[in-house]
Amino acid sequence: MKSLTTDSCDRVEQLPARQREQATAPRAAGRATVGDGQADHALREAVHSALSAGRSVEAFRTLSRLLVAQREMRTRLLRSPLEVLARTRDELAELSQARTPTEVLTAAPAALCRACGFDRASISTVNGSIWTPVALHVETSPCSPVNVLLAQAVKDCEIPLTSAMPEAELVRRRSPVLVPRAQADARLYRPLVELSNTPEYIAAPIQAGGDVLGLLHADCHDSRRTLTTLDRDRLQRFADGVGWVIERMVARERLTLQQDRVHRVASAVEAVVRERPMVPLAFGAAPGVGETQPATAPGGQPSTTLDRLTPRESEVMQLLLGGASNAEIANRLTVSETTVKSHVRHILRKLQASNRAQAIARYLCLTKRQVRRS
Questions:
Q1: What CATH number has the domain spanning 304-373?
Q2: Model-level pTM greater than 0.90?
């Protein structure tokens, strides 16, 4: 007994030349198209079924629909690059409205699927030799058993970046990768690859300030669309946009923090000036009876509060002026945070300040006075 496909082909061969040309034209057009869609496949099955049942009129109607569908598919493919660029621009503009980098990371996978037409996408952070998934988005069939298990598996998952992994090469070279035949590739992180059941995937680095902050992964698990180098390049373009959004957001946060510090120091200086009014100076008058001369430091120069700071305390004070935290000072001076806290307490006591901002304000005032005297 002949198979349905063989029988259908025989019926096509028995048709007149004109009809045979119409029947075989969609096959040639289908080969020229980058992958057949589900609707295209359904129409082909309908043609074969109608031919096998002897319904020629229905078969040719379906063939005409198939030709129209393939023409529309070609038109979409021609427009696709521009459409993807426009969607990428719109999705990145939407991401730039987020308030924190965490919000950007959470929303990026869904935005990537909408922009580039992927079925699944995930975003991860890279910290040293550890790759940690942060968010996963499934555009199609999110409730399928595979995708439900995958969403559970990526939570609190830390993956070591071994040197053989494509992701490790991606981080080193700062360039995207296309990984075909993922199920047979021993270099990959097998627990995640086997659980995701992905036939192939693409990945790209997210860069900001010259460093790789994270990774973007994407595949077409449900539609089974074959990934190409064009998909890889689109993913990298989107990853570059995400890196730019995060870098701009971090720079804005740092600027706001510096502005806050400047305002605090200015307020502290103003408070010191108010509580210590200027004393009028009497020129040419010698110290009277009972008045004491200012203490002198070695070398005959008048001693000031700044002279009472030790060299190490002066170093700590300079770092405080730059807005450094205890941890940053400890790292810079290669000492413990406990030692830094002890130095800060001594500085506050010697400058008669109750907090860092007041200490900075008084230090600046004393430094200006010292410069004027010299």
A1: 1.10.10.10
A2: no
